[in-house]
Amino acid sequence: xxxxxxxxxxxxxxxxxxxxxxxxxxxxxxxxxxxxxxxxxxxxxxxxxxxxxxxxxxxxxxxxxxxxxxxxxxxxxxxxxxxxxxxxxxxxxxxxxxxxxxxxxxxxxxxxxxxxxxxxxxxxxxxxxxxxxxxxxxxxxxxxxxxxxxxxxxxxxxxxxxxxxxxxxxxxxxxxxxxxxxxx
Length: 184
Description:
By secondary structure, the protein is an alpha+beta fold. It has one domain. The strands form three sheets. It has a three-stranded mixed sheet. Strands 1-2 form a two-stranded antiparallel ribbon. Strands 6-7 form a two-stranded antiparallel sheet. Strand 4 and strand 5 form a beta hairpin. It is globular.
């Protein structure tokens, strides 16, 4: 993933014995994939902001989720796509990304009609599946401990708390997008 330097920012390092040291750090332009993934994260988080879900997500939480999103291209690694309280990481080289066919979910719910695996035809469709999955983990860990209906179920990685959040995102955002491609 070759990236273009847009500008340089000066950063001060105070951990030097001789006083502060200033270094110039490059600021890179975002790739089209990074912009797409950030839009997906924003859309998922904005949907979960709805008061009906009682998650307590506010506008600043949406911005935080977008800023903690990292897009990597770790071809040597089969995973590296994950979500947690302070991170949403999407690996563009993940083995399911960009290959049309069955986008597999975890065995425990791969056959579920709402949150299970789906046939995908493009990188964008694969990214919707992965981004919504990882946003569900992010919300599970960040809001679960203080959310009334998630307090007892948020801890298990792919437990009921995660599945409920993921089902909201899949049924309201992702599955309708995937179904649009099958109408032709």
